[in-house]
Amino acid sequence: MDPSGPSTDRAALATITAGIIDCRRCPRLVAWREQVAHDKVARFRDEVYWGRPVPGFGDPDARILLLGLAPAAHGGNRTGRVFTGDASGDFLWAALHAVGLADRPASRRADDGLTLVDTYIAAAVRCAPPANKPTIAERDRCAPWLTSELEALARVRVIVALGAFGWDATLRVLAGQGHAVRPKPRFGHGAEARVGPYLLVGTYHPSQQNTFTGKLTQPMLRAVLARARTLAGGW
User: Fold this and answer.
1) Of 16, 59, 61, 62, whose CA is between 20 and 30 Å from 103?
2) Average of per-residue pLDDT values in the chain
3) Separation between Cα atoms, residue 86 and residue 41, nearest integer Å
């Protein structure tokens, strides 16, 4: 990593993380995430659920930001860390490890010591939504958290959108920062677009709907992540 680059504001990032965890802006999402944490499912009935918004996670000096949709009800909403404890995360960590962006290929708990390399992961919506479908209003109320994170993560140069929702959320946030692009770049697996100081790269979301059907395979995801690493400068 280039030590001469801008410095990440770690104090600001810590304040943002604390603010995300305490957020109660969306009554529907607050009610849902807490209901899921209370009712649980049989396989996790003995676990204490997180049941709060899930903050971003990773290397504060990251040049690559991965943006997903929202925490899974029994994944991040249970473990307290994005993409941790669910099938989507299992698929993602394996790919990140394969291209050198994570120190291990699997992660099931937030306290397992997983370390990301030059990578930070967040979600466009920080609370688990019913049916995994946040509303437009919920997306927009959550957007300022991503804006703040990007301001604090001063080294980020590549944003990998995990799915069309993350792609659109990124474009809206960057437009709000004065980096609007017309015509709007179209999402697709492997799509790339220059948006202000960032390179936006798209990949299908590692949801079971995509991975079980073969719409997204490990080689496909690894190729996009390797491309992001190259665009970020490699090392």
Assistant:
1) 16
2) 95
3) 13
